[in-house]
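Give me the 3D structure for SusD-like starch-binding protein associating with outer membrane.
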Amino acid sequence: MKIFKYIPKVVFVLAVLVASSCKESLTEINENPNGVDPNTANPNLLMPTVMSGVGTQYLKLGYGRIAGVVQHTQEDAWKDGFNDYNWTEEDDEWKAWYGFLRNNNLLYKRSVEMGYTFHQGVALTMKAFIFGTIADLWGDAPYTNALKGDAGEMLPAFDSQEVIYKGIIEDLKQASSLLATADVSTYAPGYDVYYNGDKLKWQKFANSLLLRYYMRVSAKLPDVAKAGIEQIYTSGIYLKEASDDAVMDYIGTASGDSWPTATAFDVSQSNWRRRRPAAALLNTMVASSDPRLKVWFQPVHVRWVSDATLKTGVDEFIRKDGVIQTGVKSLTEQELRAEITAGHKFTRHFNPTTYKPARPDLFNGPLNTGEYVGVPAGMIDPTYYNENPTTGQQVQNQHASQLSYAYQGSKGGLLKARLASAAESAFILAEAAQKGWATGGAEVHYNNGIKQSLQTWGVADQYDAYVKAVAYKGTLAQIMEQKWIASWTTATEAWFDYRRTALPVLVPGLAPVSRALPLRFIYSNNELNNNGDNVRSAIEKLEETNFSGPRKKNSQWSKPWLVQGTGKPW
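Predicted structure for SusD-like starch-binding protein associating with outer membrane (570 residues):
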């Protein structure tokens, strides 16, 4: 998004198609002197609006609460929606994705009218990405008759999830074909915030999305998936190198152009400091000496030390460089950060023989003495974990790790919204090969997936040692575990993989009343009130499960078509 500074401000005040529901008419649009006339809009001006919106929203999911679902992170306060899947209707999310589709639909129409083949390929790729995300999140949704308000289609029917997936596969095929021979002379440099007009990279992106969605439907449409993945592999045109990843940079000039936990727009640092690495991910990385660990996470500020000579069960006060700081149970994160930067070490001692949890109803030990400590999933009170002396909404837990300070930044470096990656494509091909499909060797792709992820995070020089530690032994579980790790900040893909494979094995905690990971988003009351018959028809096709609860079929634990009859994930 560095190129945004070269784009006229008119782009950012597009008042074109931002109606709140997919059924609203497009025929009555007030003229806006600061907006873009849909009848004369230049496709170049429309592209960054679509791309930046999609990139930002996709990151909000993958770095946000979906990371809580797949146990990449946990929050130690205000945790219900993050750790415990206590979700309500998803109206704002629904509006956002259909809003992107409206702007993208205009991009496509204008590209066709003006004969801009490159822009058509881009628009079809983005259409598939957006509709695919909607189907992934909810299940059935308006598709065939969506975006037709100007033609009088006010209450669009919901297409099945199967129809949507088949449709986006066809759109991606068409996009790839267009991009292969597209005329890029119509592209104005600086307006493509992913690839700056590189049509080959766009074709690789489209084909990698085909890999994604072929594998997504592989349990329900195995013949289609097998033939499709083999064809893409044979073509050789897909994301192979981390440098080709579909990413959006952040420029940090405003909250919307900055990383979600940027300190510049979160002065209290609450959004950053309340988000902790989850024990499931962190422990897996510690066990294999994963070099990405130190890039993503910090050591605990105050480490527990087992000390059999201690007369009491546990030190009341912290120790600085081994010296008890009488009267000091804790320091603020800012104080600890300054002291640790200056070279000081902080510990607390405990006697493992006489130690007893102060609150066994919340935490029953043992104390975690590791250098890196993650928060277990679904704790009743995660602020108490590992005998944190400042529970509740007080000073953050000094005995649990935090995210890297990089995630307090606003822009640049590691801070990118990632829509698709070479690592993901490699793991998909590894899974295909593991199934016996003609996509080369599973081990080669598995190793390449690891290599590309390490490249992404700047630790490729440690590949040789790491790949030995996690050497491929021919199991799907290994492939999915490494893909799960590599999906850091893009956790939606890990969620959808878990849903169809039940891998990696993720155990819900005590707090979630469902005792199971959720499977989908909930249709909103707004849609039920305004397009009720069609929404209810879609809900009826969902499969209620033992975990669905009082919402019955319209629950986050009900099964959409994609996993019905598969026995997955439970």
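The chain has 19 helices and ten strands. Let me know if you want a second pass.
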